[in-house]
Amino acid sequence: MEHPFHNALGIIQTLKQYGHEAFFVGGCVRDWLLQRPIGDVDIATSAKPNEVQDIFDKVIPVGIEHGTVIVRYDGESYEVTTFRVEGAYSDQRHPDTVHFVTSLEADLERRDFTINALAMGENGEIIDPFKGRQDLQYQQIRTVGNGHDRFKEDALRIIRGLRFSSQLGFSIAFNTLNHMIDLKNHINYLAVERIYAEMEKLLSGDSIQTGLNYCLQTGIGYELPVFKDHPGLFEEIVVLNRPLTSFAEFIAFCHYKRPDVSIHEWVKEWKAPNRIKYQAMALTHALTDYGQNGLNTWLVYQLPYELLESFVRLEHLLQDGSVTVEDLRNMKANLQINSKRELAVDGNDLLQMFPERMPGPWLKEHLQLLEKHVVMNHLKNDKHILEEWIQCHPPGKH
Ligand code: ATP
Ligand code: MG
Prior knowledge:
By secondary structure, this protein is of the alpha+beta class.
């Protein structure tokens, strides 16, 4: 057994020593069989949460009522979940009831897709009651049991199915796809945060085109926040043919395509975090500047380092595709200043030069003017040179 499971093997073995059953389960087994990089290693066990708490030293009770605790083991965190079955999801977030059960198979049966209903024992043996391995081989996404019932229980599974098609490039089984179509309007009742988390993964999938085409073909795209209020908008995004790395990139892309739909609306309707809002605004600003003025040092100066790659991706998708990350990095490295704090004069210098003036908005405005001239290399960032320039261009009267 390889590295990602190796560390966690001790948890399985310890649980077994105490007389419980324990398995690796879900996405980690799927990805292991597909030889893809493994995300989180999750463990399912017959031990009840309080029993897990008694066995291990460091246990964080993150979702005890749903049977989940985090076990800190060998410096890593692992979700350990008691075998369970679930009731309805009437709040569209959590199942109303959770019953602990004794069999692994019952636990696997409540999982969404056959490829996610796989478990692996301590010796690498695979437990696969729903032919998940066969579906991995056929490269298809199929619900465990009747899709109609499973999507009715929790409509997020519809979006999850699309997200797996985007991540894995798999097709969606005929019946499963039809059941998705039947139940697609249930997406409207889901908590937006849950849709957001899945959409983020869909948009960063290697086969994003597959995922988006399914959204279009099934009409599920038209049920999503913002898209449902703007007919024709979803069609604009199916041209996305390479993975995006953040939702900010997605918002900037959509806003560029349809400027009538504001960034504010995207952020509000998708309940996107503030960080995403500011990144989407910065990317939009840079794209607009680029469209009007081409590549320039002011654009590069204003664009945060962490957005350089996003900007290049968007520029390639939306404009002529001539900018490289390398170009931007070089330009950043050659800037005279990286922030206005590095400007050779500050507010105090200006006040000393114009003692008759009261501090006011003119200070900030004049510093901004200097900042731009220095960044654009119209002026050298040298105190004497800047002061000379200020003498010749005294601040206007306010
Ligand atoms: P990733 O690698 O992206 O984390 P994952 O398959 O591990 O993919 P998670 O959201 O971490 O997905 O869920 C872990 C497992 O829990 C899934 O593999 C699946 O078995 C089960 N699961 C998650 N969400 C649902 C759901 N809404 N309905 C049924 N089963 C679910
Ligand atoms: Mg996971």
